[in-house]
Amino acid sequence: MENKVILTMRGISMTFPGVKALDHVDFTLRQGEIHALMGENGAGKSTLIKCLTGINAFESGEIRVDGIEGPVVNHSTLDAQKKGISTVYQEVNLCPNLSVAENLFIGREPRTKIGTINRREMNTRAAAIMKELQIDIDVTENLENFSLAIQQMIAIARAVDMECKVLILDEPTSSLDDHEVEKLFILMNKLKAQGVGIIFVTHFLEQVYAVCDRITVLRNGQLVGEYPIADLPRVKLVAAMMGKDFDDLASIKGDMAVDLSHADYYIEAQGLSHKGTIKPFDFTIKKGEVVGLTGLLGSGRTELARVLYGADKAQTGTMKVNGKEVKINAPIEAMQLGMGLLPDDRKAEGIIADLSVRENIILAMQAKQGVFRQISMKEQQEIADKYIEMLSIKTASRETLIRQLSGGNQQKVILARWLATDPDFLILDEPTRGIDIGTKTEIQKLVLKLAKEGKSIIFISSEIEEMLRTCSRMVVLRDGVKVGELTDELTQNHVMQAIAGGDTDE
Amino acid sequence: MKKKSMNSNTVLLLITIALFVVMYAAGCVVYGDKGFTHLQTFLNILINNSGLLCVACGMTCVMLTGGIDISVGSLIALDCMILAVGMEHKGMNAAVLCILVLLMGIVFGAVQGFFIGYLDIQPFIVTMAGMFFARGMTAVICSDQVSIRSNELFVKLANMKFQIPFEIGAYLNKKGKLQIPFVRIPVIIALVVLVVIFLVLRYTKFGRSLYAVGGSEQSAAMMGLDVKKTKLKAYILSSFLCSIGGICFCMNTMSASVAHATGLEMDAIASAVIGGTLLTGGVGNVVGSFFGVMITGTISTLVKTNGKLLSSWSNIAVAALLCFFIVLQSIFAMVKSRKK
Amino acid sequence: MNKLKKLTKQTLFLPIFCMLLVMLVNVIYDAACGNFAFSFFSISLRNGVLYGRLIDVLNRGSEVAILAVGMTLVVSSSAGTDISVGSVMSLSAAMCCMLLAGFGVSSANELQVPLVVGLLAGIFLGCVCGAFNGFLVAYLDIQPMVATLILFSAARAVGLLLCNNLIVYIRDKSFKVLGGYLGFIPTPIIIAAVCVAVTTILLKKTALGLYIQSVGINKKASRIAGLNSRKIILLCYIICGLCAGIAGIVNASRISSADTNNIGLNYELDAILAVALGGNSLGGGKFNLAGSIIGAYTIQAITTTLYAIGVSSDQAPVYKAVIVIIIVAVQAPPFKQYMSKRAAKRALARG
Q1: What are the chain C neighbours of A351 within 8 Å (beta carbons)?
Q2: Pairwise CA distance, residues C257 & C235, whole Å
Q3: By Cβ atoms counted within 10 A, which residue in A90, A246, A390, C195 is the most buried?
Q4: Which of C206, C214, C220 shows the shortest C-beta gap to A363?
């Protein structure tokens, strides 16, 4: 049975400075279906959603909504809401300090004859809505007293009560436990039965197979395809998301392969964990080894690295560096031990936007030396020039502010920042994101070169082939747990099966 | 009905009320011989702080949005000066002057609110400029102390006493004369303001918008509230209530000078914070602020009753209390975020 | 047109432009009054010391310049201002004079303790105040202005306690030197110059300047890059307290007394205004110390000019408040967006 189409997006394109974020993407949503929108970081799913809800303006293409004549262009989320498109985000967009009932009705409160808020009616109506959704709570209590799951359901209830036809759930389950997810699914199925079309953005594969009817996959801003759930088994989905096409760039690892069997361990960690992000794990890395951390976004690959580096303090476990037991409380302590971390969120944790390229490059080196041993200006300039040339950073001059550089060049500056500290151990979290192919290969070669010099490297990427080319060992993570390690037979299929987990058909 | 869980905000309010009771009881025990136990002492605290109560109500509204208004003390000085100079030097009608002062409050608040809401400048910077502006304007109007004596209507209103019915709390003074406790007009104005603001905050869309904006500006905007307008209105309300407070203040002091009400912004902010209003916004209530005002009032009364202590002790005590409550809030916030 | 744009983009454009504007006003005013038009700039030696309005500006502007040093660092590192500096000035002065005169004494002809002890105690107390503010801001994550509001009110009150509510006069010559003359040059100018020089050397010869800006721009990234942002913010507040302490003592020496109620009154406004006038964003991040210093003297020039025109010291804040608001409003992103939108529209209309 083919249901009525309620939303179509055709040929949506949009560019951010320097990056084609969406390239002629199509998307179709039918009445009463749960439609998963999948893709790795930077694939363009959140951009697509933002185009739909009016946060971003798209450049070409058109959106049509059932019941509205002509193409639809939203200018704000409010606009979209009025047209029946509501969004519920991972970060609940409600007011925690107001009661449940108020959150349901704010902006459209029932009034008394003299224009004041009719609290009694508001509460009764809120209670009725909650009862219908089988959520048993006291609607007069403040929102913050409830778990995130309940808050999310209240946000959904608000959207549904405002008569939405299209409900977008953007990573709603990221901070929920299994039991809460279960509850959310019941609610989603209920809404589906009522004829609401749901767009479900998530990175949990199990959940997609648990509730969705259809999957649309995006990669690098392009549409990979739209599939009924039955036609796309897990491994195929992972392949669609991560890109299966082996590129023919010569295997750069081959001639550089090193025998590590006699090398010393650089890090030996046991039972490290950080509450809420990563469960206890063991980890070792040898000198000169390149280890890949793989898993989907949110699997704990970033979080594991952050714990090693002390960016998130380890709450349990022990760690040895160079055979000596250490306790790392802050990044600077890790740096003194010779570590470095290139974070995945470049804008929030990488660049110091208003400082020059030179200052950004020498920052970590300076921090390591201490405040009183300033690197002389001449030396700073030499270092900056050296790395600008070595990494071919495209910048007007070394004194240009880093925020004026393109994303890829900013990334190279941050990489230069760490290379300048001459680290023994480097964690590279998505170092090649938003960088053109040529530079990607350069960075991969650089990684191998550093390893040959005896440096240990953790490499995290959402592109598997990139990791296959550089890493000699892969650690696989799923849902905050380290689920395995692969050393032999590092092939795309093996890795994907390990990432996907569950039924490994094919 | 399930029993509502105690959250940290309720705890803060309970601490405040307990503090007030303890402080007042201590005053009764220590200074009982100086008349602290009489009902009139309590009413005097109300009379003396009626202006502050109005200001604290306005401050609470602004702080609910996550902002702050430190122009209030200076604005009161300006209000008093306009009233005093108008009556004494120009011989104007008291009622007209009061309306003028209230209008000025609205305009003053609107300008501040525009800068904060629509130009997105930090509230502290804007109201600090407002604070110096108003204090300077006071000096521009007149740099001497002006006493209000000649305006009959105003003097009559200021001296009006409302005795407590049924002689509750009445006592015989040393000469054996029956003293019936009384309040003055400012107290009645302030209590009306308190009740009105309480109802506004609880039962109007504007009131709830203040909470929503303070709870999460982004969410409030997402849910269709006009955040900028809400902020503008909050600052208008604050300055308007401050002007009402200024009239009350003037009735109590019957004078004006450039140095009038210096540091009152501190008392108002302290009252709101002590009363459980979060500096980060979104949580608070004028009932709490009422107790906050009573606490700061009790402190200064205690210092005055002692007679030997310098008046700056009351400033220090209020500042210390403010510090204590701010740190408490910050710790609660840290615990809360750690739980998540 | 393009050249003009380039000129206005210069970092020191705003403070120097304002300074020139103030001077121009002076020239016009003097000419209009029938005086020698450039009397603002004339410097002479009278009674063996330098004399003239320019010298007066440099002399009286010393306190603001010293405060501006600390305030610049605070604004840069924490995106907030320290509004307690005026009160801390008065507290430091009170502490210093109380020690020198002895507690409860309103006038002293001889020092009770060596001068150095009094000075150091006053300055140390300033540092303590700064550390208190810094602790609240850096370690308890309290908004800077709320945190400093506590001392804004309490420091002056404590000062009054220290002085037993009296104005403490110190009639010793050695104390007067600080606010008087060293040779023929006013000492405050020298002290301000030393403060600025020491800070400049500190910023140039160590990586502190880089650290402060880095923390002010992006706390998280700075942490990952190995900086301890809390410590750096704390340090900035301590330096600010130190500056307030020095400024307070200079001011006390100038009037040879600790007038706790009036020392440092309204100075917080001047200091913040100096930072803003210096072209620094009150939103934190990059800073320009030279700009702040020029800004500070510009403020003093404005003040002196206002006094010359006949505005009393009580009334001067009106004008300064208006200037502050205008500067901050012009820096505000919504205003900039509005202007660029208008410019774009105009360009569209033209071609």
Answers
A1: 218, 221
A2: 30
A3: C195
A4: C214
| A267 and A369, same domain (yes or no) | no
Nearest to C85 by CA among C268, C300, C296, C270: C268
Of A473-487, B273-287, C61-75, C263-277, which has the strongest mean pLDDT?
A: C61-75
Number of domains in chain A: 3
- CB-based contact A349 C224, cutoff 8 Å: yes
End-to-end CA distance of chain C: 17
If you count them, how many residues does chain C have? 351
Count of domains observed in chain B: 1
- Rg of chain A over CA atoms, in angstroms? 25
Closest C-chain CA to A342: C224
Contact call for B266 and C316, based on CB within 8 A: no
Please report whether residue A346 resides in a domain.
no
Query: What does the pLDDT read at residue A1?
Result: 44
Task: Answer whether A93 sits within 8 Å of B5, measured CB to CB.
Answer: no
Chain C residues 75-104 within an 8 A CB cutoff of chain B: 80-81, 83
This prediction's pTM: 0.85
Q: Do A19 and A80 sit in the same domain of this protein?
A: yes
Query: Could you identify the residue written with the tokens 């206002």?
Result: C306
Looking at every residue in chain A, the average pLDDT score rounds to 83
Q: CA dist C153 to B51, B306, C78, C242, C252, Å?
A: 19, 22, 21, 18, 19
> Of C293, C164, C325, C144, nearest to C233 (Cα)?
C144
Nearest CA distance, A58 vs chain B (angstrom):
20
The CATH number that applies at residue B46 is: 1.10.3470
B280 touches A at CB < 8 Å: no
- pLDDT tens for A386-419 read 999 888 888 888 898 888 887 778 888 999 999 9
Last-in-domain residue among A382, A406, A421: A421
Domain endpoint, select from A197, A232, A267: A232
Q: Residue A215 belongs to a domain with what CATH number?
A: 3.40.50.300
Q: Report the chain A residue with the minimal C-alpha distance to residue B2.
A: A138
Please indicate if any CB of chain B lies within 8 Å of the CB of C143: yes
Residues A432, A407 within the same domain: no
Q: What is the pLDDT of residue B7?
A: 64
Angle, CA B214 vertex, CA B213 and CA B216 arms, to 5°: 70
pLDDT band at A506 (very low <50, low <70, confident <90, very high): very low
A471 and A399 in a common domain: no
ipTM above 0.85, yes or no: no
pLDDT digits (tens, 9 = 90+) for A200-239: 988 777 788 888 999 999 887 888 889 998 888 877 887 7
Assign A182 to helix, strand or coil: helix
Beta carbons of C325 and B326 less than 8 Å apart: no
Domain span including residue A259: 254-338+423-500
For B51-120, the DSSP string reads HHHHHHHHHHHHHHTT-----HHHHHHHHHHHHHHHHHTS---HHHHHHHHHHHHHHHHHHHHIIIIIS-
Same-domain status, A221 and A266:
no
| Chain B positions in Cβ-Cβ contact with residue C146 (cut-off 8 Å) | 68, 279, 326
Tell whether A236 is within 8 A of chain C (Cβ). no
CB contact under 8 A, C318 and B263: no
Please report residues of C whose CB lies closer than 8 A to that of A367.
Answer: 207, 211, 225-227
